[in-house]
Amino acid sequence: MNAVRSYAVYLMQTVWPVDLSPFYALPTTHPSWQIFLSTALLLSLSWMAWRKWKTQPWWAAAWLWYLVVLVPNIGIVQAGEQAHADRYTYLSTMMLIAGVCYGLARVSNFVAYGGAALSLVLLLASFAQTKYWRDDFALFGRMIEIEPGSPAGHNNLGFELQKAGRLPEAIPHFVAAARSPRVYGEARVNAAMGYLAVGQAAEALPFAESAVQSTPANPKAYLALGRALVGLKRHDDAQRAFSRGLELSPVATLKAQLDMEMGVLHYVAGRDEFALASFRAVLASNPGSAPARKNAGIVLGNLGRTREAIEELEKYLAAQPDDAAVRQAVDSLRASSRIAR
Q1: 205 near 176, Cβ under 8 Å?
Q2: Three-state SS at 70
Q3: Packing angle, helices 151-163 and 167-178, rounded to 10
Q4: Is residue 164 a contact partner of residue 136, using CB atoms and an 8 Å limit?
Q5: CA quadruple 41, 45, 46, 51: dihedral sign
Q6: How far apart are the first and last CA of the chain?
Q7: Is 45:7 a contact under the CB 8 Å cutoff?
């Protein structure tokens, strides 16, 4: 059904390029009248092209080109969450437009001039769309104008606002995307992380729990859930969330974040050996992590492994030479154990 509708939608957007968007969400259902009209339009144009095959073959050639070249982009095999993507129609409409222009020019000069005037109108309509592509804020804002409840629009605009350091403005967009009836990727995780970044763990928790329920194989959801639980002092529950995230074998960067969170939990609970293992796991994934290096050195000092502690802290100071507190701690460790520089 979406394939039939897409043929007609692409054709209409070619004829009148308004309300264009970088993302058109796949509808849960297709109204029967849309399918009926789309089918009728395709059959009518195909019949007209066939009738003109012998006398005016350019019509048939242009229409056949449109039908065939567009096959990969009409959603016969659905890829992703989009219903259609008009950015893929340039090649398919090129011959169609050429055939129409050639056919109109052969009818009469008057019709040809009318076609030229129409082309100018379409050119202006297309140019009007360019203002929505000047930057990401305009683009994703336009998505929300066209579809106010667009989870993709809200999530992407929130992400751009967050990158620009405007997190308080980003959070409502993450929340709008997370509350959409359609499950959209990282929206719930982003809403939870946004609230956590401003210290609102209680507000973050429902979104993190929803993220785990909707995407149970997503380790980022467990990272968000664990952090929210830590913020609410529910350390045992947080540890279970981080452990589950680690079981999902995430990419190295995310694994380092989960291991860091586990290390801090172990450290707070007085489990220094476990904390050290977690911090060293972070360094295995990300050797340049200064916080993990510092934490490993502190835990080694707590365990009485002074020489190793000094080595880790000096590596940390090589990257963070202005940390006076750590430099003083290293001097104290050396003095207490009489280890020379």
Answers
A1: no
A2: coil
A3: 160
A4: no
A5: positive
A6: 75
A7: no
Q: Does residue 260 fall inside a structural domain?
A: no
CA 279 to CA 308: how far, in whole Å?
14
The answer to whether residue 319 is domain-embedded is: yes
To 5 degrees, how large is the angle CA 216–CA 221–CA 223?
Answer: 130
Query: What pLDDT score was predicted for residue 76?
Result: 59
**Chain-centre distance of CA 315, in angstroms?**
36
Residues 215 and 275 placed together within one structural domain of the fold: no
Pick from 29-43, 125-139, 238-252, 271-285: least confident: 29-43
The residue written with tokens 């070619």 in the block is 14
pLDDT digits (tens, 9 = 90+) for 302-339: 999 999 999 999 999 999 999 999 999 888 888 877 66
Q: Are 22 and 150 in contact, with CB atoms under 8 Å apart?
A: no
CATH code: domain of residue 299: 1.25.40.10
Evaluated on CA atoms 83, 88, 90, 96, the torsion sign reads negative
Distance CA 50, CA 56 (A): 10
List the structure tokens of 119.
Answer: 């082309």
Residue 86's domain comprises 2-122
Cα 9 to Cα 339: distance, rounded to the nearest angstrom: 76
Whether residue 58 is contained in a domain is answered as yes
Would you say residue 217 lies in a domain?
Answer: yes
CB 74 within 8 A of CB 45: no
In our burial notation (b when 16+ CB lie closer than 10 A, e otherwise), range 156-191 reads bbbbbbbeeeebeebbebbbbbbebeeebebbbbbb
Model pTM greater than 0.90? Answer: no
Enclosing H/E stretch for 82: strand 82-84
User: 236 with 140, same domain?
Assistant: yes
Half-sphere exposure of 232 (CA within 13 A, CB side): 20
